[in-house]
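check these tokens.
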Amino acid sequence: MIADPFAWVYAQLTRLLLSLGMTAVWAQTTLRFVGAAVLATVLLVSTFFLIWGERKLLARFQDRLGPNRVGPWGVFQTVADFVKLIGKEIIIPTHADKVVYLLAPLLVVLSVVGIWAVIPMAPGVVGTDLEVGVLYIVAIGAIGTLGIMMAGWSSNNKYALIGAFRSVAQLVSYEVPMVLVLLVPVILASSMSLVGIVDAQAGMWFIVMAPVAALVFLVTSIAENGRAPFDLLEAESEIVAGFNIEYSALAFGMFFVAEFLHSFTIGAVVATLFLGGWRGPGAEAYPLLGFVYFLLKTLAIWFLIVWIRATLPRVRIDQMLGFNWKFLTPVALGILMLTALVDKMSAAAGWNRALVLILANAAAVTVILLSVRAYARFQRRTDQAKGLPAAVEARPAAAH
């Protein structure tokens, strides 16, 4: 039985290339390109199943069947939609900037697929182990924001431009708390490499030692993806379809692919940073088992994102920005300072690091809840003084 099928396949391919007369350097370079192409292809093909799965889950949450006509359980419905899209003409609006218009969907898809280059999916299975992997994730994610801005600006449409403006306000602002809490696993692992962060979680997952940071990172990642309740970039009732209103055929489908694949990618990043990545019982001895652990953790977070999308209504633009700047950013800054301080003190005093961090996070949650309660009371008294109706009125007694 082959304990490490990934290493076995890599060794066999290397031997094949060397037998063809390649040098070791060229063989390794060729395999890296082949690996990148295979990974990108698998991710893009998996989007068909992600879209089908999300549509089925949303249907179940809304008490309906969902896709059930094309293929068994409707599994080929996405394939039929794809065939329909590639059969249509890509219509470029009059006076649109053609180069920027066509380049925008490519950049959005590239930014999502590029994140997977640094994510370790099993022991020894990673595109490249960058020493600044965390910074790379932030940088490549910003390219997706740039693609949305390019799409809105180049479409020569006011609704698309408003959608692009919203992307600037939303995606850029939510990156502030996201980057702050990204530093928490970096502090705990003393490394910016994602491989190093996974290795540092051998004893305990970081979600146990830093649950507040994990929650803030998940919320800000959903906002960066523009998913409900933060889907203001393409709010149909306000700006028709937002930044992609003028796109059609495969160009529109690429935005669709990027959005659904981004949700799955968020699950992979959260699993890597806070859920131990591929780590689990027997994963080091059998790397294929580590890949299964990684996939299950990623799917669990993806399911949570779909659940949130099906449950929460869309917030207003002022509510979204207020939630970021008045709540998430102070919480992220506070939890970063608390983690750095407690981690340094526990190391100097010889305390149990995990226990002290858990207690510190419990204290932080208590302070956050008390602050929210005090703010809600203050807001209620202010509204009453202005003569405004209460936000939540008492339910009238049922008529008998």
Summary: The longest helix spans residues 24-61. The CA atoms of residues 17 and 169 lie 50 Å apart.
